[in-house]
Design brief:
Largest sheet: 5 strands, parallel
CATH architecture of the largest domain: 3-Layer(aba) Sandwich
Distance between the termini: 32 Å
Strand order of the largest sheet: 3-2-4-5-6
Number of domains: 4
Amino acid sequence: MKAVSDEPVIVFLGPSLPVAEARRVLPARYLSPVRCGDVLRVRRLKPRVIAIIDGLFETTAAVWHKEILLALEDGIAVFGAASMGALRAAELAPFGMVGVGAISEAYRDGVYTDDDEVAVLHGPAAEGFRARSDAMVNVRATVARAVEAGVIGAESAREVIQCAKETFYQERSLTRAMDRAWGTSRTGEAVRFRRFIEQGGYVDQKRLDALALLRHLADVYGAPRTRESCVIEVNRSCFIMKLQHQVMCRPFTAAEPDLPGEEKVALEARLLGPTYRLLRRLALLMSMAEALARARGVDVAPRHMARSFDADDFGLGPAARAARWTRARDLDDAGLKRYVRRLAERRGGEDFRLYRRSAKLWHVLDEAGRTLGVEAPDDRQVVCDEFRRARGLHTERVTLDWMRRNDLDVDSYAELAAAEARLSILCEASRTYTLGLIETIEPVCWLHDAIRLSGLYPRLKRRLAAPASSDGRARRAAAPDFERALREHCARLGEPAPANVEEYARALDFAEGGAELAAALARRSRSASSSCPSGAPEASCVTGHPPQSRQRLR
């Protein structure tokens, strides 16, 4: 028996219910619709309850079942309803996930079997993920109510439901199904049905189920009570370990108003461009170095903990002992202790400022990999070609100029490319099997450590402290404004404006591509202009983002 306590509740919510309405029912931390990796990410927020209502699919990988199983294994109560949550709750009910509402029950009992029953087309985050099509479950519920009220007959109801079901979910609407089913016939029923809907007869079953889940959690949240929980042990496959490793080295997928400070800082770091990519590489190397230390049985002694306050490559410096230092980095006593321990674990194998740290860690891991026979592909030309293409070195002249600027001859260039290829092999394959590393499933974020260690954390936190728009969302702007803002932003970073904005944005972990990058630049522009005098170097003039592509969601 486990009790659902009054500790944080996290709710993944999208078009099923407006967040403002949800907050009136349940005070919780509301995040955008769940996607692959998000449940692993929220584990580091240490919630007691996770509620999944809406979730993305098609445009991104859907949330994995095993992510939810790991949360259940942690003792986190996981609930689902209305949409993606109803699907996963039905599938994982034997393992302890709890479904709430009519939709979840229908999936559990086999009444609904198709995913498209809850799938809808929806708008962007800036519009609150407003639904742009009707969910099949809503069509069924509305037609059933109309039959019960005597508005339409059973045969007419079957025709409407069949037409709606035969329509692609992105184009599905109740009125369109009525037009297809009846045409110009049965005008009396059609008129009565339309009037019925206009007078409030439409049944938004997804909204009702979402509210039911929130009310249920409000009861539990306000008056803790025990519930049955399955005791499970989740198999650590190489796939879930790889996903966990990626999640530990990256921020959340969207700038959510309800995220804690350190997560917002990690998202703000994306606007550092090349520096962010280096921070992410450092986070990756730090996590792998810790796994190597575990595999080699490194014992973290008090002297290693004390050396974490030295002023060297992997030292925090004596100032880190002061309370002011920890407050500026959003660390409480327990958080500081865990952070220092992680630094000390890496010291056990090697005494590791930003490039130097990465180079030292890279060297340690590369040597360990070569010892175990991990080598780059035999074709030297292929390795070098992939290396230069990844850096935008598309011509011989540009490549040679890059080599000269980096003091590389042909042989040293080839060796650097080979070393990069070996690291990619270690990162892409299961490190547990390749290097014999002891991976961790603990909910930590190495990117936070890398940002704090680099000294950038306080600066990024000050950026976030500047006022932004009242709802945390960016306003729309014309595409030329975004293009100009992006050129100015890249000029400040000392890099050329990207030819492919989508590719550039996603490489910086903007999950929604250029639209999300534009929104981030808009927020940055407004906060900078509100906190800096006119003409300050970081102020740009963008006021929003270009038109966003439609999203698909359950």
